[in-house]
Amino acid sequence: MKRLLAALLLSSVAAVAHAEISQKFGNLEIHYNALTTDELLPEVAKKNKVGAPTPVPAKLTIYATNLTQQLSNVSMREIKEGTAIYYLGEFRVTPPDTLKFTATVEVAGEPKYEMTFDQKFFK
């Protein structure tokens, strides 16, 4: 069983598209991705800044569901690096598997947003 990392980055302005996926809600653009920690290079983990957006703090609620419909809560923690704000959470998965993530994002002065995405994990 591998320990994984889910990362969500929130910004309030448009940013250049990068490897992660993003969804736009009005003037709020949310970037997200899920990957195994062995795929993340140490130097990338340390210097992972995305474009030059203006980050905004948020409250996140993340759930992951596997193919057998087992539901788990992904507790998120806020990480601040300079002006960047990241939200990281750890979860367990046994590849091969596909997890469906459901994220609720709450930003002050904005309506609550919900998004879902599937991520396949391989051995």
Q: Note the run of SSEs as H and E.
A: EEEHEEEEEE
User: Under the CATH scheme, which class?
Assistant: Mainly Beta
Count of β-strands: 9
User: Distance N terminus to C terminus?
Assistant: 10 Å
Distinct helical segment count: 1
Largest sheet: 5 strands, antiparallel
What strand order characterises the main sheet? Answer: 2-3-1-7-6
- Pick out the low-confidence regions: 1-18
Q: What best-fitting shape do the alpha-carbon axes yield?
A: globular
User: What percentage of the residues does DSSP assign to strands (E)?
Assistant: over 45%
Query: What is the CATH fold-level name?
Result: Immunoglobulin-like
Q: Helix- and strand-based class? A: mainly beta
Q: What number is the mean pLDDT? A: 75
Just name the CATH architecture: Sandwich
Total discrete domains: 1
Taking all Cα atoms into account, the compactness measure Rg is 14 Å
- The CATH superfamily label reads Domain of unknown function DUF4426
Q: What percent of the residues sit in helical stretches (DSSP H or I)?
A: under 10%
Structural description of this entry:
The chain has 123 residues and is mostly beta strands. It has a single domain (2-121), classed as Sandwich (Immunoglobulin-like). The protein has one helix and nine strands, in the order βββαββββββ. It has one helix spanning 42-46, and strands at residues 2-11, 21-25, 28-36, 59-65, 71-74, 76-81, 84-93, 97-106, 113-121. The protein has a five-stranded antiparallel sheet, with no helix packed on it. Strand 4 and strand 5 (71-74) form a beta hairpin. The longest helix has 5 residues, at 42-46. The chain starts with a strand and ends with a strand.
